[in-house]
Amino acid sequence: MALLEELEALRVEALRDIASAASPAELEKVRAGHIGRSGKLKELMGRIKEVPPTGKREAGQRLNAVKSEVEQAWEDRKTALADSAAAGPLPDPTLPGLTQAMGSLHPLTQAMDNFTGIFNRLGFSIRHGPEIEDVFHNFDALNMPDDHPVRDQADTFVLDDNAILRSQTSTVQVRVMEEHVGKYGGGRKMPPLRIVSPGRTYRPDAVDATHHYSFSQIEGLAVDRDVAFSDLKGFLALFARETFGEDTATRFRPSFFPFTEPSAELDISCVFCRGAGCRICKQQGWVELGGCGMVDPNVFDAVGIDSELFTGFAFGFGIERLAMFMLGIDDIRRFTENDLRFLRQF
Questions:
Q1: Rounded average pLDDT over 83-108
Q2: For the chain, what is the mean pLDDT?
Q3: Phi, psi of 86 (to 5 degrees)
Q4: Are the CB atoms for 283 and 289 separated by under 8 Å?
Q5: Separation between Cα atoms, residue 78 and residue 82, nearest integer Å
Q6: Sheet containing 132-133: order of strands
Q7: Residues 232, 234, 238, 240, Cα dihedral to 10°
Q8: Would the pLDDT of 207 be above 70?
Q9: Which helix (H) or strand (E) element contains residue 116?
Q10: At a CB cut-off of 8 Å and minimum separation 6, what does 331 contact?
Q11: Helix, strand, or coil (residue 273)
Q12: Phi and psi (nearest 5°) for 205?
């Protein structure tokens, strides 16, 4: 019978098209073409009147069976496509594996590690001290007179009569010298001493693009016989070249600090314009890096080192200031805002 033959061909074609449909849109197109209101199966059902009376019963049963089979295949394929979409695409075993994003050290930590690494290679050990200090280590031992302005609460975070937040990491130098003297004595038998002390310091400054109430410093100290200012210049010139490039020039301007004599400010050729003059260096070609000088004999006397036998030099730099020069950052507040867009650059 021609109708039954066409029905069988339709069944095979519909099942094949349903199985090969790769998306819900394709599957819906197959449904409309085969079992929809204007589909091929509907057309065959309209031709049942052509079948002789003796074959109508068999033809009707076969049409209903094919319709049920195709509809069930369509429903199954629809469910399978929905489950596949919910599960997502199958992984491609040829692609590289997915990894978690790795964190990194804070740019200030990276800068501090870089700076301490340079001095460590020059024979300086790294020492740390408490951030809550007493008056003796923060002021008295550093040759600061009682009427010095930095002792005022306007310039120092005072916790009580003898406890403050340290205003510089020079306090670590005092403690290390005391420890050194306690172990070896401060006379002829005392061996040389070289340290750098990185850490947080605190001053009640107004926060702006170049100032903050909490900032980091790295300070250095070298004590030995016959240490000269030329040694200090050599060490710091080498540090500047290692940090900012071999073509970095240095100069020392006379200054004053209570704990060093003579004292100087260290300038380097501007890292932004390489000395040509720009907005950052105010067209001078130089930017200030930090203070330095020869240790004042009064500091040695305060910790028990014989100032007739030993001399030394000391220096101190702001870590944020160095990092801003090294990384081209124009605002110190970026280091403490925890903006991931900024931090992920490093």
A1: 79
A2: 88
A3: -70, -35
A4: no
A5: 6
A6: 132-133, 163-165, 158-160
A7: 60
A8: yes
A9: helix 107-121
A10: 209
A11: coil
A12: -90, 150
Hey, where are the domains in the chain? 2-83, 107-343
Contact between residue 290 and residue 318 where contact means Cβ atoms under 8 Å apart: yes
Residue closest to 209 by CA, chosen among 329, 61, 88: 329
CA distance 108 to 335: 7
Beta strands in 130-249 (DSSP E): 132-133, 158-160, 163-165, 193-202, 214-224
The class level of CATH for 107-343 reads: alpha beta
Q: Which residues contact 290 (CB under 8 A, 6 or more apart)?
A: 265, 266, 315, 316, 317, 318, 321
What beta strand segments (E) does the chain contain? 125-126, 132-133, 158-160, 163-165, 193-202, 214-224, 250-257, 260-269, 286-295, 311-318
What type of residue sits at position 328?
Answer: G
Residue 154 has pLDDT above 80, yes or no: no
Distance between CA 167 and CA 155 in Å, rounded? 9
Rounded to 5 degrees, φ, ψ at 255 are: -150, -170
Amino acid at position 58, single letter? E
Q: Which tokens sit at 5? A: 């033959």
- Tokens read off for 292: 């330095």
- Span 39-62, average pLDDT: 79
pLDDT digits (tens, 9 = 90+) for 306-336: 999 999 999 999 999 888 888 888 888 999 8
Length of the chain: 346
What is the rounded distance in angstroms from the CA atom of residue 123 to the CA atom of residue 197? 13
Neighbours of 307 (CB within 10 A): 15
Measured distance between the N- and C-terminal CA atoms of the chain, rounded to whole angstroms: 79
Sign of CA dihedral 26, 31, 34, 38: negative
pLDDT tens-place string over residues 211-236: 888 999 999 999 999 999 999 999 99
pLDDT at 1: 52
For 108, list phi and psi in degrees, rounded to 5. -70, -40
